[in-house]
Specification:
It is a single chain. By secondary structure, the protein is of the alpha/beta class. It has one domain: Spore Coat Polysaccharide Biosynthesis Protein SpsA, Chain A (Alpha-Beta Complex), CATH 3.90.550. Helix content is about 35%, strand content about 20%. The strands form two sheets. A seven-stranded mixed beta sheet has the order 3-2-1-4-7-6-8, sandwiched between helices. It has a three-stranded mixed beta sheet with strand order 5-10-9. Helix 5 packs across helix 6. The model has no long low-confidence stretch (mean pLDDT about 90).
Length: about 250
């Protein structure tokens, strides 16, 4: 069964273009270093494809984005499963930093296993009072089948109909409740959302215990508190060097 990682990078202006290229390259470099056996595919808008030569060393295939109406929006990621050439797909947000081998995640999905493996957000419920679990889909292992393809198609339809420009994970979480898909809940260590953890008073002592176990850090590295947290990682300098981000 084929398996690999998918990144979706799109833009609608020069600023988002630069940011998208910078972040997807950072994540791809780290994934190549820590999970070298995972094949990678990039789905990109025409503006991003102008930097094709930069991507070639890290991606086995590069595919044009299919939905220009989502360019520069978070909804662009929804096409990842449809565009994926793999039966088992790892969908990664561009602002993820895979700092440990995550190839074992593919073992959670497939025939006779689960359809999707993903983690729960630190704020574990949606804020609408419904009690619906708030799932994080920035690191998501998906078995491509009729159930998941239907889910992603419906997700795209709802996002398109409601013209959502911001996070689409809330719609996704609600659809998981409605659709006939089997979910495996990964721990937060698979998708350590630094920016969402800023609401919690996490001590440096607690960070020292948790950070070495984290598989994927997830942050844009823009907020001061987020930068403070990542600098507490014992391999911070190695992470920055190998992602070619430079010290921050």
């Amino acid at each position: 069964m084929t398996k690999g990682a998918i990144f979706v990078a799109t833009s609608h202006d020069e600023k988002t273009r630069r940011n998208s290229i910078s972040e997807v390259m950072r994540s791809a470099r780290l994934l190549s270093r820590h999970s070298p056996k995972i094949e990678k595919t990039l789905v990109a808008s025409q503006s991003i494809l102008k930097a094709r030569d930069q991507f070639k060393p890290f991606f086995q295939s590069i595919i044009p984005s299919k939905y220009p109406e989502f360019d520069g929006c978070m909804g662009a990621k929804i096409q990842a499963l449809e565009q994926s050439p793999y039966e088992k797909t790892l969908i990664l947000d561009n602002d993820t930093l895979p700092i440990r081998d995550i190839s074992k995640g593919f073992d959670f999905v497939g025939v006779g296993k689960k359809d999707i493996a993903l983690s729960i957000a630190p704020n574990q419920e949606l804020k609408d009072g419904s009690g619906v679990t708030n799932f994080q889909n920035g690191v998501m292992f998906v078995h491509k089948n009729k159930r998941t393809s239907k889910l992603f198609k419906k997700w795209m339809g709802v996002v398109r109909d409601t013209d959502v420009k911001g996070p689409t994970r809330f719609i996704f979480s609600e659809l998981l409740l409605q659709e006939d898909v089997n979910i495996y809940a990964l721990s937060y260590l698979w998708n350590f959302r630094i920016d969402l953890l800023l609401d919690f008073d996490i001590t440096d002592k607690a960070l020292a215990k948790v950070l070495p176990r984290v598989r994927v850090l997830h942050t844009h590295l823009k907020r001061k508190k987020a930068i403070h947290i990542i600098k507490k990682h014992p391999k911070y300098k190695d992470i920055m060097i190998n992602s070619k981000t430079g010290e921050i």
